[in-house]
Amino acid sequence: MKTSLAIPVHKTASSRLAQTDFSNLVFGKTISDHMFVADYKNGEWTDLRIEPYAPLQLNPSNAALHYGQSIFEGMKAYKNEEGEILIFRADANWKRMNESAERMCMPSLPEEVFMEGMLQLLDLDRDWVPTAKGASLYIRPFMFATDDYIGVKPSDTYKFIIFTCPVGNYYSKPVSVKVETKFTRATEGGTGAAKTAGNYAASLYPALQAQKAGYDQLLWTDGKSHSNIEESGTMNVMFKINGTLITAPLHTGTILKGITRNSVVQLANDWNQPIEERFLSVSELKEALENGTLEEAFGTGTAATIAHIAKIHIDGKDYVLPEKPADAFSHKVLAALDGIKYGSQKDPHNWIIKL
Ligand SMILES: *Cc1c(COP(=O)(O)O)cnc(C)c1O
Question: Is the pLDDT of residue 169 over 90?
C-alpha cells in the first residue's frame, strides 16, 4: 500500500531494538520505539507526527482521567516469508473506532489519519515486527479527552495515539469459564458495543471473583434476565451444538462487534458450515453439556484468535468439555485464519493490507 500524507518524523536517538529479547515477549509489556500522535482542536485533527514512544504530560484536571472519555482498538500485523508486513483487517478497526467515538461523544477520525498514521509508523518500526512462528506485532490505537476541565461534558480537545507491541506466539491454554448471573457487563441502551475504557474497569471486580474461585474468565449473560449467553472478557464466544455453530447476535448493542467473530462467521459461510447468530440460553447450554450435544466451545478475539473453552461453570456445577477431534471446526478455522494472516494461503476476502 502506498502512503501519501506527509507526516513529520522525529526519530529516537536510542533505539531499544537491540536490547529486546524477542524470544521472551510478555503480551503488552514490550513497546516499539515510536508512536503516532494527532491532536484534535478547533474541530479538526492537527499536528500529525511520529515521535519516540515516551511519557505524556497531562494536567491533573484532564477530563479523561475523571470521566472516562477514552476508546481503543487492537489489531495485529504479521511478517510473511518475504519480509513484507501484512496487516489484518485494519479498515474494520478504523470503522469500529469511529462507532465507539460516536457513542462516547468523541470526534471521528478520517480514514487517512488512522491508516496513514499506522502504515507510516509500521514502516518506520518494521524491524519490530517479529519473525518467529506465531509471533506478531500488536497495534494499539486509542483516543482520549484532553480538556483541562472537571465539569461533566464532552471534551473539546482529544489526543489520538498509535503504539505497537511485539508479541510472541500466543498459544492459549484451553480456558475455564464461569457463567456470570449476578454482575452485568452491558445492558441494552448502555455502552457494551463500544470499545471504551469504562467497560473494562467495570468488569475487573466480577472477573477477579471468578479468578479467585479458580476460573480464567467469565461468560457474561444479558443484564436484564441473566438467561442468555453474551460474550467473554475480551472475546466473543461460539458454541457448536449438534453440528451447528451458535454465536450471540449484534442487534441488542450489548455485544462488542468482534472482527475475529465476523471473520469466523464469513469462513463458516464460505464452507457451508451451519451458523446461527442468535442468543443461546444458559439452560440450552446446560442441556447440551448434559446430553453430550455440545461439540465445541471457543472464544474469538485478536489476542488469541481462537481460545478453546475446556470447562464451563453453571449454577454451582462444573462441566468438562470432551476432547476435540483433530478435524474440529475451531482447529480448521484457526489454521485458515493463520494462513491468511501470515500470507501462506489465499486471501479471498481481501482482509490483508500489505506494507
Ligand atoms: C475487542 C473485544 C472483542 C474481540 O474483538 P476482535 O475485533 O475480534 O479483537 C470481543 N469482546 C470484547 C468485549 C472486546 O473488547
Answer: no
One domain for residues 118 and 238:
no
Q: Is residue 268 part of a domain?
A: yes
| Among 94, 139, 199, 256, residue to substitute to test ligand 1 (most atoms within 8 Å of Cβ) | 256
Phi/psi at 71 (5° precision): -135, 160
Is residue 290 one of the residues assigned to a domain? yes
Cα 264 to Cα 306: distance, rounded to the nearest angstrom: 10
Greatest Cα pair distance in the chain: 63
Instruction: Answer yes or no: is pLDDT of 2 > 60.
Output: no
- pLDDT for residue 325: 80
Residue among 200, 247, 302 to mutate when testing ligand 1 (max atoms within 8 A of CB):
302
**pLDDT per residue as tens digits for the range 57-94:** 999 999 999 999 999 999 999 999 999 999 999 999 99
Domain of residue 82 covers 17-168
Provide CB contacts within 8 A for 150, sequence distance 6+.
61, 63, 66
Domain termination site, one of 133, 152, 168: 168
Kindly report the CATH number assigned to the domain that includes residue 321.
3.20.10.10
Residues 128 and 219 in one domain: no
Query: On the CB side of 70, how many CA atoms lie within 13 Å of its CA?
Result: 15
Residues 153 and 266 in one domain: no
For residue 172, pLDDT beyond 80: no
